[in-house]
Specification:
There is one protein chain. This protein is 55% helix and 9% strand.
Length: 765
């Protein structure tokens, strides 16, 4: 009975649970399902005992267990946070594995991306080649400008013609009263004829702001070109410039252009902008003329046919002038852009462009391999050989290798010798070859190269001017003079030829004849004329003829940055050195040298007099054309920091004394010498070549009175056994008006503020 009693509640409990499950299924079927939020409270309620404890859970193996938080009737045993942590740890360990075991080759991925970009750029160029207007084989900004200009002018001219036809048709059938109404309509239709430069208020046609309005117009053109021609995004990386003084350039430039190493450079952007502005000024002027020709509003009865015919003719003439201007500008652009590629080069243009980009980005080793491969595969390609020469030139500059530079010089010559080489490439290659030959000191080779250029381009005055300079570098003033005479015969106003011709005349001591050439050449302001040497020699020539305007030209030279001051006119200077005309021994820091000279002045004097008595041939006449009159001889012991031959054999004691003072014997920009000057000698006002030295004068034989020296505006006299110290980069002048010769000992020393490194590295003078 007890077993039956105990089993009966169990049966009732099971039946109750089955009934509840049937009710839940009926509710689920009626509602079509519920969401988790609705079920949540019910499950929580059913999963608890009446006393609040969690109900036991029965597993599928028949065992019962206590339900944990969030677990009911076999639900998930782990929380969402646990799964998130597992996923995060898996991601971290996967990243570590990829990085540690180098599973992904990032360099290869980046290389493929770059290759895709380059290929995309080449494909785009191929599609745009149909719009190539200047025949250089690709589509660039110049082509876009030309196309936009043509469309603008064509559109404006068509609109003007359409307006004229409409006006003419209306006026033929209108009465005098209708004509006034027509004028009002014409005024309201003016914006249809305006060009882009008229969108902003414009000044009067002849006013000072007429040119200023062209700048916004040109900027609008650039922005429209960029919008009309979608190109790949620009890479802002820079390449190593050819010339370390010049700023870098972007390597996306036109690959066929010649950069600083090629001398021949494409037209600068500001000049193109002016050309574009000029074209739009013409278009703007056209619309203004059209408005000016319209019948005035105050006239009550305008004559239809007369009023319509005259403006039409003027507009047509102006339109024709505008179109002609556009064509001229187009032709001008074509002429200015260098033609560097022949037929062979155009067939491999993409390979040349790729190699040129490597060169301009500074990847010189890869660029050399690329151009070398092109030369081997296409031996008749001038552009490939020229590109290889440029890379060798750049490498020679980078590695300071004369051997590489010589290879570049040879390759420039080979590029110029190939058949069917374009004239622009021939000019660029030979001109660069001549420059690099001069750099190596191959002056005769440079002269031969420039002579060949002149033979090929006989009408090029610039090349003839360069040929004249080559003659001067060889010391062939006679040959240079002939060249510049030929230039001035065909181009009498050429400023470059004038200053060089005047320089040659002055060297021939034709002082008065040289002045107009030097003056007019400097006044021309042409490239190559703004040189301190020409200001120096013009002022010197004016001084020698007694013209006080010399100091006006010295002042101009100072303002142009060629001279440190009107008085200090040396041309080979180190900036920042103390500058004063006269110095004391204490200021120089060479007091020991000064004391040695003054203590031993008689020994030095006696050796000099012995040399003069034995052989006056050791005293050579001054050859710098500094004397107005008289005799002036010099006996040099050291020059440019080195002994001069066996000169010290005649004065061994003097040389032994000087050997102890390297500031004098090692001065590469100075001399140690005896100077003898005869009575009646006058030395023109002049300056030394550099501010890197100071000059000491030790008096040995000084007749009194009449021997004096002026430095700037201070004049002093020598004394026997005493040292005068001055900076000979300042203007100085000498008079010898005594009854017998004057003998002094000249010792040049380094400027005391120069460092040891500067003294070792400065070039000799």
């Amino acid at each position: 009975m007890q077993r039956c009693a105990s089993s009966q509640p169990l049966v009732e409990e099971i039946q109750a649970e089955e009934e509840e499950e049937e009710e839940e299924q009926e509710v689920f079927q009626e509602t079509g399902g519920v969401n988790e939020e609705q079920v949540g409270p019910v499950e929580e309620a059913s999963a608890q005992e009446p006393d609040g404890r969690p109900a036991p859970v029965e597993h599928k193996n028949g065992k019962r267990a206590e339900a944990g938080p969030g677990v009911a009737d076999g639900g998930p045993r782990f929380s969402m946070f646990t799964w998130l942590m597992v996923v995060a740890l898996l991601g971290v360990w996967s990243s570590v594995a990829v990085f540690y075991f180098d599973i992904v080759d990032y360099d290869r991925v980046l290389a493929r991306a770059q290759e895709f970009r380059m290929n995309f750029s080449e494909v785009l160029q191929g599609k745009l080649a149909a719009y190539d207007t200047d025949g250089d084989g690709d589509f660039d900004v110049e082509d876009a400008k030309v196309l936009l200009d043509q469309r603008r002018f064509r559109g404006s001219s068509e609109r003007i013609r359409t307006e004229e036809e409409k006006k003419r048709g209306r006026r033929r059938g209108e009465t005098s009263g209708e004509a006034e109404t027509n004028q009002t309509k014409e005024k309201t239709s003016k914006p249809e004829v305006e060009t882009p430069t008229q969108r902003a208020p414009e000044p009067e046609e002849d006013g000072p702001g007429a040119e200023e309005t062209s700048v916004p117009g040109s900027q609008d053109v650039e922005s429209e070109i960029q919008a009309a021609v979608p190109l790949p995004p620009l890479d802002d990386s820079h390449f190593v410039p050819d010339d370390p003084t010049e700023p870098g350039q972007r390597y996306e430039e036109e690959p066929g252009s010649i950069d600083t190493t090629g001398v021949l450079v494409e037209e600068n952007q500001p000049e193109e902008t002016e050309g574009e502005s000029g074209r739009y000024q013409t278009s703007s002027k056209l619309s203004q003329e059209a408005e000016a020709e319209k019948p005035p509003k105050a006239e009550p009865e305008p004559e239809p046919q007369t009023g319509s015919t005259r403006p039409t003719e003027s507009r047509q003439a102006a339109d024709g002038a505008a179109e002609k201007t556009a064509e001229e500008q187009k032709e001008k652009l074509k002429k200015k852009k260098p033609k560097l590629l022949n037929k062979v080069d155009k067939s491999i243009k993409s390979e040349i462009d790729a190699a040129e980009r490597l060169r301009k980005k500074g990847n010189l080793d890869l660029a050399l391999k690329a151009f070398d491969s092109l030369v081997q595969q296409h031996p008749l390609s001038p552009r490939a050989r020229y590109g290889k020469a440029q890379v060798q030139d750049d490498l020679a500059e980078k590695l300071r290798s004369n051997d590489l530079l010589q290879s570049a010089i040879s390759m420039y010559g080979e590029a110029a010798e190939l058949p069917d080489v374009t004239s622009d490439l021939l000019r660029a290659a030979l001109k660069r070859r001549a420059e690099r030959q001069q750099f190596l000191g191959r002056m005769r080779g440079s002269l031969a190269t420039l002579q060949k250029l002149v033979d090929v381009f006989p009408d090029d005055v610039g090349l003839r001017n360069d040929l004249g300079v080559a003659h001067l570098l060889l010391g062939d003033n006679k040959g240079a003079k002939k060249v510049y005479e030929e230039v001035l015969a065909v181009a009498p106003s050429n400023g470059f030829a004038k200053v060089h011709y005047g320089f040659i005349l002055k060297a021939e001591n034709k002082i008065a004849e040289s002045i107009p050439y030097l003056r007019e050449g400097l006044e021309s302001g042409e490239p190559g004329t703004d040189d301190g040497r020409f200001y120096f020699h013009l002022g010197d020539a004016l001084q020698r003829v007694g013209d006080d305007s010399a100091y006006l030209w010295y002042e101009r030279g100072h303002q142009r940055g060629h001279f440190a001051s009107v008085w200090q006119r040396s041309l080979y200077n180190v900036e920042g050195l103390k500058a004063q005309p006269w110095w004391t021994p204490q200021e120089t820091g060479y007091a020991d040298l000064v004391r040695m000279l003054e203590r031993n002045w008689k020994t030095i004097r006696d050796e000099a007099l012995a040399v003069m008595d034995r052989s006056r041939g050791r005293f050579l006449p001054e050859e710098e054309n500094l004397r107005e009159k008289g005799e002036w001889g010099q006996y040099t012991l050291w020059q440019q920091g080195k002994r001069v031959g066996n000169a010290c054999q005649g004065v061994p004691k003097t040389c032994a004394l000087m050997e102890r003072f390297p500031e004098a014997t090692g001065c590469k920009r100075g001399q140690i010498k005896f100077s003898v000057m005869q009575p009646g000698t006058h030395v023109w006002p002049h300056t030394g070549p550099t501010n890197c030295r100071l000059r000491m004068h030790l008096g040995l034989v000084i007749p009194a009175p009449g021997c004096r020296i002026r430095c700037t505006d201070q004049t002093r006299e020598w004394e026997e056994g005493k040292v005068l110290i001055f900076d000979d980069s300042f203007e100085h002048e000498v008079w010898q008006e005594a009854n017998s010769y004057r003998l002094i000992f000249i010792v040049d020393v380094w400027h005391p503020e120069l460092s040891q490194y500067q003294r070792q590295t400065l070039s000799p003078i």
